[in-house]
Amino acid sequence: MNYFNKYFLLSLILLLTVNFTETTSAKNSNEIDASIESALARFSEEVQGSQGYLDGARGY
Predict the structure, then answer these.
(1) DSSP string computed for 7-58
(2) Over the stretch 1-60, which tens digit does the pLDDT of each residue have?
(3) Quick one: CA dihedral 45, 48, 51, 55, positive or negative?
(4) 44 vs 2, 25, 27, 53, CA distance in Å?
(5) Residue 49 region, left (φ>0) first, then alpha (ψ -120 to 50), else beta?
(6) Buried b (16+ CB within 10 A) or exposed e, 23-60
(7) What local confidence, expressed as pLDDT, does residue 28 receive?
(8) Distance between CA atoms of 27 and 24, rounded to whole angstroms?
(9) Which of 46, 44, 45 is nearest to 54 (CA)?
(10) 51 Cβ partners below 8 Å, 6+ apart?
(11) How much is the pLDDT for 16?
């Protein structure tokens, strides 16, 4: 492969990689807290003995 083809291919791959990557944004702390509270409420409603399990859990 000659010099031009080699760097053209490399540039094309780099351009496609940069252009087609998706940007993600993280949730803020309030959204995360709301999701956790919702999950814990659902867990408590649906699982028998859930309070005993949560009492022994770290960070709860």
Answers:
(1) HHHHHHHHHHHHHTPPP--PPPHHHHHHHHHHHHHHHHHHSTTHHHHHHTST
(2) 687 788 899 988 888 887 666 666 778 899 999 999 999 999 999 999 999 988 888 776
(3) negative
(4) 66, 30, 24, 10
(5) left
(6) eeeeeeeeeeeeeeeeeeeeeeeeeeeeeeeeeeeeee
(7) 87
(8) 10
(9) 44
(10) 44
(11) 81
Tokens standing for residue 32: 């995360």
Number of residues that make up the chain: 60
SS3 at position 11: helix
Burial class (CB in 10 A: 0-12, 13-18, 19+), 6: exposed
